[in-house]
Amino acid sequence: MIMSDAIFSRPTHTFDGMMEECSPSTVSIREFGCEQNLLSRSDGSASFIQGNTSVLAAVYGPAEVKVSKEIYDRATLEVIIQPKVGLPSVKERAQEQCVRETCEASLLLSLHPRSSLTLVLQELHNDGSLLSCFLNAGCMAMMDAGLPMSCLFCGVTCAIHTDGTIITDPTAAQEAESRALMTFAIDSKEHQVMMTSTKGSFSVQEMQQCIAVSQAASEKIFSFHRESLRRRYSKSV
Amino acid sequence: MLSRLKAKVGSVLLPGDEFCLDTTGADTISLAGPSKANKVVCGPGLRRSGDRLLVYKSGLLRHKEPNMFWMDAQHKRYVPAKGETVIGIVTSKSGDVFKVDIGGSEQASLSYLAFEGATKRNRPNVQVGDLLFAQLIVANKDMEAELVCVDSAGRANGMGVFGAGGLLFRVSLGLARRLLAPQSDLRAELEQLFPCEMVVGMNGRLWVKSTGVQRTLVLANLLESCENLTPVQRRQLFGKLAQGAL
Amino acid sequence: MAAGFKTADPLEYHRSFLKENCRPDGRELHEFRTTTVNIGSISTADGSALVKLGNTTVICGVKAELANPSVEATGKGFIVPNVDLPPLCSSQFRPGPPGEQAQAASQFMADIIESSEMLQMEDLCIERGKLCWSLYCDLICLDYDGNLLDACALTMLAALKNTRLPKVRVNGETGAPEVDLGKRRGLKIRRHPVAASFCIFDDSVLLVDPAAEEEQLATARLTVVTDEEGRLCGVHKPGGTPLSGERLQELIGRATVRQKEIHRLIDKVIKSIV
Prior knowledge:
Chain A: Keywords: Cytoplasm, DNA-binding, Exosome, Nucleus, Phosphoprotein, rRNA processing. Chain A is α+β, with helices and mostly antiparallel strands. Chain A is 29% helix and 31% strand.
C-alpha cells in the first residue's frame, strides 16, 4: 500500500495559466505542486508539476557501483532523462549534463565514496519550462531519498518576449513566440546562480534582469519546499 | 547560546539551514574547568563547520539531554553505522568470511570465527541464503562494513542465524527505529493484538512470525500500513482488527 | 620533485601556483592560450579550418550536400554540427558511440548557430520546397587539452567563413539539379559568435581558458558566447559553484574583449588567403 502526500501551492494571484507578465517586483509563476514518496521501489521519488508541465523523478542509492565508474573519494552520480516519446537524443544528453552538474554541486558526494547514485527523470508532459521542472523534481526526489546535501536548489525559466517583457515560467506557446529563453538553477543558501542554459540572443541587462526575477521566484519555491516537508512530517510527530 | 537550536527541536529543517554556535569558551574545550555539559553532539544529518552547525538532511530536529541533536527522517536506503544491529542475508562463502547483504551500498563481511563458540575446527553452520541477525563493528565510508554475531563478552546474545517459518519484508528506516524505541506505543499495541516473534533490523528489514501463516501475513500487512498512519488512525485500525480477529 | 608533487596532490600543486597569481603553464589568471587559425586545411572539403588553442587542436570540415527541405520549413536549409572526441585526442575517451561530453558539445554548437543567427537558414535554400543545402560540420578533436567548447566554436566559425558553395541551378524541364563546380560563392556570415570559457577554482579563483587538468579540478565551468554587437548568444553553465550576478558581469566583460580579438584574427586569416 502506498500513501503519499500531495500538496499544491496556490499562489494568491491565480491566473488562467496563459498570460502572465511580470516585473521583478511582482513575479508570478504558474501554479505548482509536488508529491513525494509516490514510488514504492525507489529510495526517493517525487513528481513535480508546473502548470501543465509535469515530471516524475526517482532516486536510487547510495548503491553498489560498477567498477568502471567507481570513484575512490566520492559517489558517482548518474542522471537519466527519459523523454515522453522516443529515445533520449542529443538534447536530452545536454540536459542531463546540466542537471547532473547542478546536483553534484549541491550533494555532499564525498560522504558516500565508491557508491553510485542514480537520478531518473521521466517527462510526463511538456508545456514549457521543462528543464526547470526537471531540476525541481530532481531536488525534491533527492531530498526525499535523504541524500546529504549542502543546500537545496530550484530551477526557474524566463522567456523574453519579442516586445521585451520578461515572462517567468513560460508555457510552450509563450516559449515558441519568445526571442530568448533562459533557465537558471538558484541555490537556497545565497540565492546565486548555479546553472544557466540559454537560447536566443539577448543583452547583458536583460540577463541581469532575468537573474533578479528568477531569484525572486526562487523564494516562492523554497518556501514551498519547507511547507511541503512540514505537512509530510506533521503526521509522524 | 543553544536556545535558537533548542527552539527548533521537533520542527522541520532543510539542507542548507544554519545555526551559529556561540563559541565564547563554552563549547570549545576549555582548560579552565569542566564544561562538558555544553559540548554539542551532532548526530546524523548535522555537521559542524567552524562555529556553525549545518543541516545536510531534511527532516525533524530531535534533541536528547544534555546536548545531543540529530535529524530524524523517513528514508528507505540504509547507510551502515557502527554498533547498529541489522538483518542480513548471506550471499556467498569465500574462504573464511561470509559476504552478507545488509542493504547498504556494498556487502558486509562476516568472519566465521565471529559466532558464539566458533573455533577453527568448529565452524558455524551457515548456508548461502540464511538470514542473520548481526551487529556492525566496522562501518565507515572508506572501508568495507564488518559484522559480528557475538557481543563483547563472546556471547551470541540473540544474534546469529534465524528465520525458520517466518516472513521477511522491508519497511522504512524510520518505522524500524520507531519499533525499536524503548517505549514504543506501536510495539505495545502489536503485542496486545497477537502473540508474535519479531526481529527488527536497523536496516529497515523486519522479520515476523506468528501462530499460523495467515496471522503472520496479517501482521506484515499491518506493519507496512503503519508507515503512513497517525497514532489515532492506527488505534482505530487495530481496534477493528481486534474485534474481527477475536 | 615537482612532477611527484603534481601527481600526488594535483589540487595543492595548482593552489600553490594560484597563490602567486600565475598558472602552472606560465599564464596569468585571465590570459588565453595562443590561438592559431588555419583555414582551407582540407582541400577536398567545401570549407575547413584547423584551430589550435594552446595544445587543444580541433579540425572542422564542412561538407555540403543537396537535400530536400523539410515539410515544416520549405524555405530553409540545414546545418548539422557534430563534435567527435576520438580516443586519439586523450586517454579519457574510449572508442565507441559518442559520450556525454561529445553529445553535449554537439548540442552546444547547434545552439550557437541557432541563437546567434550567424547564418540565415533561408540563405541555404536553392529552390523553395524542392532543393536546399545541408551543411555537415564535422568537428574532430585531435588533441584534447581543455576548453573544447571555445576551440570548437572558433573552428566552426572559421570553417563556415571558408565554405564556398558551388552554383546550383534547377533544370526547368527535368527538375534535376545542375551543379556548376567552377562557380563558387561564399556563405553570408551575418554574425560572429565567439565563445569564451572560464572555470572556477576552489569556489573562488577565476581562471580563463582552462587547460584539461584545470578543468578537471575546477568546481565550476562556464562558457559565454558573444557576438560583435555585444549581445549574448549563450551563457552556458552546466552547474557547479553558485555565482552572483556581479561575478557573471565580470566574465561577460572579458568575453566581449575576447570576441573582438578573435574577430580580428579571423578577418586577418581570411584576408591573407584571398
